[in-house]
Structures are given as C-alpha cells and as structure tokens.
Amino acid sequence: xxxxxxxLALSLSGCILSPDGYGGLTIAETENARARLATTAARLDDxxxxxxxxxxxxxxxxxxxxxxxxxxxxxxxxxxxxxxxDCQTAAVMGHWALERIGHxxxxxxxxxxxxxxxxxxxxxDGLLVVDGSEVYEIQGDWRNAMRNLYPWVETFKRR
Length: 159
Prior knowledge:
Oligomer: single chain
Number of strands: 9
Radius of gyration: 17 Å
CATH architecture: Roll
Largest sheet: 5 strands, antiparallel
Strand content: 25-35%
Order of helices and strands: HEEHHEHEHEEEEHE
Strand order of the largest sheet: 8-7-6-5-9
Number of helices: 6
Helix content: 40-55%
Low-confidence stretches: 1-22
Structural class: alpha+beta
CATH topology: C8orf32 fold
C-alpha cells in the first residue's frame, strides 16, 4: 500500500520513475530527452557520427554501478551534446549508437578475478568497439585489441 501511495504522489507531482528504477525524470525532462534522442538518431549515419557523439562523454565515478536507460542518458545530456557517467553509461550509449547505424551490437564486461571491472559496447562482427569516449575500428580479434589496451583483463562476458 505504501508503494502505491509513493507512486501516486510521484505521478501527481509530475515525476515518473525512470525505466531503470534509478532516480526519476519529470514529464518535461522525459519529453526533452525523447526529442534530443530523436534528433540525435536522425543525425547518425556512419561510424564518424558515432565517434562524434561519444566524444561528448566524460567519465564520472558513479556512487553505485547501475544501468541507465538511453532515455535517462539523453535527459542528462546538455545542449552541446555533453553527457557524463561511468563505463556502463558509455556502453549503453555506444550500443544504442552502433545499432542506429545498422551494426548489431552487444555490451561486454571486461573482468579480472571474476569481478566486473570495465564495460564496453562491441559490434557483433567485432569490428567496432565503443569504449568511453572512443570508437575503435578493429583489425583482427577485438578481444586481443582490448587485452593490449587493458592488460589486466582475464575474461570477457556478454551482458
């Protein structure tokens, strides 16, 4: 009952819960994020456009590991295309952007000692990797390329 009252109060106050359950967005923030998302999607034609988009990313240590929705990322994006978050945020944006230009993609954990240590987006053909604010065009095995970049990696696990 208490949960229903909280949800009702949020609804009446103009807030809605974000799809990922982290924080909340107002109705206005949600509408602005959807508009920014649609405008950005319309501008994505090739890898160069993805590269330009992810260059707006700034790494920020988040207090907890969580998976933001693409809508939440666009809600936090400023008018210049700058957005921030941790590696999960960058991987979600990279995955979304690669799919918009026609490359099926997945999100991968780079791990050591059985722990999740870093997260990236990789096209299913392994030719494109989005890592933070960089897009790498890979010649050969992307796993070897990531091991060269991050020598501590022991295993790769798809989300």
